[in-house]
Specification:
Elements: E1 11-20, E2 45-53, E3 56-58, H1 60-69, E4 72-75, E5 78-81, E6 155-156, E7 179-186, E8 190-197, E9 212-215, E10 222-224, E11 231-232, E12 241-244, E13 247-249, E14 259-261, E15 266-273, E16 278-283, E17 291-297, E18 302-304, E19 315-316, E20 319-320, E21 323-327, H2 334-337, E22 353-360, E23 363-370, E24 381-387, E25 395-397, E26 401-404, E27 410-412, E28 415-420, E29 423-431
Parallel strand pairs: 8-11, 15-29
Antiparallel strand pairs: 1-2, 1-5, 2-3, 4-5, 6-13, 7-8, 7-9, 9-12, 10-14, 12-13, 15-18, 16-17, 16-21, 19-20, 21-22, 22-23, 23-28, 24-25, 24-29, 25-26, 26-27
């Protein structure tokens, strides 16, 4: 899911009309995600949402693209320009005082391929403690050997670069990679006609093919450092190493490693006081933007959460971005929760709650929010942000919603946000 920090939030009006149209894909690139399935029907009718911004009608394709890219969102029954899940002030304004209440919240964007808040997977795609219960997944995202070793640009494309910090995610079926994108139209400034490879299109070590951008997971507390300067011509994000002449090559001239830390000005982490495991999944961004980067949180464990430094990390069309994490229900393992789902269960892109994390304007901006409009399913455990030098309070309470105030008496169904100017902030997960 993409978060873009914007100061203004003009509302978009919307109306719907039934039009007799032929079925088909109105976007200029291929779709491969399993949720993009349309039933054959005899009467070819579809409801088209007409978006109006400040009195001007926005073309349907632009409206869809805006929702997909995270620039537009549904809020209170209308479309709105998407702000970050936190609402950072401009650099000239002071962070909220420690006595203020939590910041106003704007719901996250939705995806173009289905009603889900994961941005366009348009193909354009642990530590454990001795007290931990047995996990439903043997995979872990907490360690990546060689994390600070410069990447040599001579590793065969058939070999996953786990010796350089990358963490293989085996259940994706892509030879350890979490996303593979291939642009059929390449210019110096943009990539277009981008195809995302899925597991049934390749076999393991053969998935990262010539000309493809191959994306990877990093350990908890780190994030991907490689993405090309040229990005999707119609707003898609692209990330990973490039397979060129049979070798994996760096794509970002600013970093010579595969993984980098987030901001170290504020420490952000998650701590489990739950009775069972919880799967937290970060989106592959820039990249396929699917929620596939796993953090397997066992009872009693703590894990760092990467907090992107917005001045130096990936920017989408010149706008700062944050990290988005999907929070699955109690007991769901990472292999089940950190993948694209079909909506039969509240997992993966249908997980009930998202966490937003980013550093901007002298503070970390942390949020907890409902995964709207994808699902109104309620998470079955509590989530609270605790820490030093916080602007207010923010807690999801089972049965009450997203609450702020000294006694958590101000609750809503959308979400809450706080800023943290220094020290440590912890997302506490606890049984209801």
């Amino acid at each position: 899911m993409r978060n873009v920090a914007l100061a203004a939030l003009p509302l978009l009006a919307s109306s719907a009309s039934a039009l007799a149209v032929g079925s088909g894909n109105h976007r200029g690139h291929s779709h491969f995600h399993q949720k993009r399935q349309e039933a054959d029907i005899d009467i070819q009718m579809e409801v088209v949402t007409v978006c109006e911004l400040n009195g001007s009608i926005i073309p349907q394709e632009e409206c869809d693209e805006g929702i997909a890219a995270g620039r537009l969102i549904w809020a209170d029954g209308e479309l709105s320009i998407a702000a970050a899940s936190y609402a950072p002030p401009t650099s000239s304004s002071a962070p909220p005082s420690s006595s203020s209440t939590s910041a106003a919240y704007t719901p996250p964007p939705s995806s173009s391929t289905t009603p889900t808040p994961t941005p366009t997977p348009t193909p354009s795609s642990t530590s454990t403690s001795e007290e931990s219960k047995p996990t439903k997944s043997s995979s872990s995202s907490s360690y990546g050997k060689g994390i600070d070793v410069p990447f040599p640009d001579d590793i065969p494309c058939s070999e996953f670069p786990s010796d350089y910090g990358a963490v293989p995610v085996s259940w994706m079926g892509l030879g350890g990679w979490i996303g593979i994108q291939t642009a059929n139209i390449v210019t110096a400034s943009s990539l277009d006609d981008i195809m995302t490879t899925v597991a049934d299109m390749c076999f393991g070590e053969d998935c990262c093919t010539e000309g493809a951008y191959c994306s990877y997971a990093c350990p908890a507390g780190y994030q991907k450092a490689q993405w090309p300067v040229a990005q999707g011509a119609t707003g898609q994000s692209v990330g990973g190493l490039l397979c060129s002449d049979g070798k994996l090559t760096l794509t970002n001239p600013n970093f010579d490693t595969l993984c980098i830390k987030g901001s170290e000005k504020v420490t952000v982490q998650v701590k489990s006081e739950l009775s069972e495991q919880a799967a937290i999944c970060r989106t592959d961004y820039p990249g396929t933007e699917a929620m596939v980067i796993p953090i397997d949180v066992q009872p009693g464990n703590e894990h760092p959460l990467t907090c992107p430094e917005q001045d130096s990390y990936y920017q989408w069309q010149g706008k700062a971005t944050s990290a988005q994490y999907y929070l699955n229900p109690l007991g769901v393992g990472v292999e089940e929760g950190c993948t694209w789902s079909n909506g039969d269960k509240p997992i993966g892109n249908w997980a009930p709650i998202n966490l937003g994390v980013g550093y901007s304007a002298g503070a970390a901006w942390l949020s907890i929010f409902q995964n709207k409009p994808t699902t109104l399913e309620k998470l079955d455990f509590n989530v609270e942000i605790q820490g030093d030098n916080m602007s207010g309070t923010c807690k999801y309470i089972v049965g009450k919603g997203f609450c702020s105030g000294k006694t958590y008496d101000s609750c809503n169904n959308d979400g809450c946000t706080v800023s943290v100017s220094s020290g440590t902030a912890t997302y506490i997960l606890s049984d209801a």
